[in-house]
Design goal:
single chain, elongated, six-stranded mixed β-barrel, Barwin-like endoglucanases, Alpha-Beta Plaits, alpha+beta, four-stranded antiparallel β-sheet, 2 domains, 4 helices
Amino acid sequence: MVVRRVRHILYTAAGMGMALVGGCAGVSTPPSAAGASPSSSAACATPAPDLRAAYNRPYQIHGRHYAPLTSSTGYTVRGMASWYGWESGSTTAVGTPFRPRAFSAASRDLPLPTCARVTNLSNGRSIVVLVNDRGPFVDGRVMDLSYGAANALGMAGQGTAPVQIVALMPAATPPAITARGTGTVASLPMAPEIPAPSQSFLQTGAFSRVNNATRERDRLIKAGIHGVLIVPGLVQGQPYYKVQIGPLPDGITAVKVIAELRQMGFHDFYSVEQ
């Protein structure tokens, strides 16, 4: 994706100092109603954004100028969200690794990093994401979600969904503590990023053409198999579209799905842990 590669060039060099940002990537909140209170940010903790950083300064993409907000206080927006995955590159605007299955997002105007609660208005599912990237640069979209966030919100299959975005307040600055008997002052360390729990999927194939992946997905759905996804990715630099079933909640479910696949003539599928 050319646009996102441009963003990486603009922001990566100045963003490497953000490597210690405490993450909510991969940390979800239980699905809730669209009116869930945004006051709790327990699942996502970040320091206050550095407004002097390059990724928080005005910027230009494809001839259009953008000016990020200097504060996320009171930020509540409704609009259409899309999602992006492995094709986006390996680095976010703040310089941290991009993890497609983590709960993260891109915004044109929120200061980075910011925690935000995103609610899918079509089904009421709600999660907390770490906004650490810039985009989307497509008219009519208010946020780009990572694949993991989009999947949790139930919108990965259709690609877009109407959402409500509510910014959460930055974590309070860790209090200073005095080392006993030394009189020196040290800061409490920042909480490390919490990895997402492992999930099991069955992959039935990987295709270089999205139409072929779509046909396989439709065949599986028509046979009554639920949770079929087309997951874009890169294999040796080439785009591929993986057809996966899941996440599978337990071994019993996996055994049932495997039996159904064999009855349909599938024999080359295999398990994938994400």
